[in-house]
Amino acid sequence: MDQNMKRSIILEHYQNPKNKGLIDDETYIKINMNNESCIDEVDLMVKLEDGKIKDIRFDGEACAICTSSTSVMIDTLLGKTLSEAQEIINNFYNMIEEKEYNEELLEQANAYNDISKQPNRKKCALLSWWGIEKALEKNK
Asked: How far apart (Å, rounded) are the C-alpha atoms in residues 73 and 126?
């Protein structure tokens, strides 16, 4: 993926994030994540149904990297089974930590493959991914 494509994905998901806005529904798992080193604070709502991720919603105040990463994560994980989602999450972590990973699984999330060059931005990219993992853990 070239730099222009990466910038385009990040900008699009920052300016027009997917599923932004929380709803009043007790059937969702709710998680709050914040990054002590910056302004990023994200509330996630996850609906699991029949072993799949049926819906993910979010809201909060966050930088461009955190907001876009959250939106890309939602796009990537919606409709996946819990095991598929965990595999994608693990591959995202590996990519951010410059370990071996499966590019095909990450789809648009590959836009963050060089975020490790900016160590102070890693938490921004990872915050919601950590949150979704917490939500999946609550379901076990």
From this structure: 10
Per-residue model confidence (pLDDT) at position 119: 86
Q: How far apart are alpha carbons 51 and 5 in whole angstroms?
A: 33
Averaged pLDDT of the chain: 95
pLDDT digits (tens, 9 = 90+) for 29-48: 999 999 888 889 999 999 99
Instruction: For the chain, count helices (H), then strands (E).
Output: 5, 3
Element (H, E) at 52: strand 52-61
Residue 139 DSSP label: T
Q: Is the pTM of this model over 0.85?
A: yes
Q: DSSP code of 28?
A: S
Give the residue from 136, 140, 111 showing the smallest Cα distance to 47.
136
Q: Scanning the structure block, which residue is given the tokens 């932004």?
A: 20
The C-alpha angle 74, 31, 91, rounded to 5 degrees, equals 45
Closest to 67 measured CA to CA, from 13, 5, 109, 12: 13
List domains and CATH numbers for the chain: 3-138 (3.90.1010.10)
